[in-house]
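Trying the structure run again after the queue cleared.
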Amino acid sequence: MKPAFTLIELLVTTSIILLLAGFGLASWQTFNQQQTLDAAAQDLKNNLRLARSWAMAVKKVACAGTSGGYKVDFSGNTGDIGDNVDYGIREMCGDSEVGDWQNFSYPEGVADDYNGSFIFAPLTGDKDPPGDIEITLSLSGREKKVSIKTNGKIE
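Done. Tokens:
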């Protein structure tokens, strides 16, 4: 008689392999969601730093002088681009918005808790209105915070 595995041994081995695969898949999904959230937060910080640097360099196309700055709007009022726009950046000339919105979206499933706007002031890069802002990005119960200080520093 040839040596062979019993049905019970095969079922136990298969169950262990499936259990390990299930844990691996769950860990991968958790890791992937955290990486997506981290990337969205880093993109937001980079775009905010870009708007601040434009304001500090007084990168003006349509406006002479140093009044205005760059407005960052999270309220969804950034034009008729569509529902997938989460925030936009636009040049300000005095109290008037000039030029086209530069619109940005988060990856699918990522959302923020901020509904408002602020302006990075020319030359100094300070944020108007004064006061710190904390934007919390969330994805499947995970959160990542982005802070904008009164002096315009982004953390």
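Residues 56 and 124 are 6 Å apart (CA to CA). Worth checking whether this holds up in the mutant runs.
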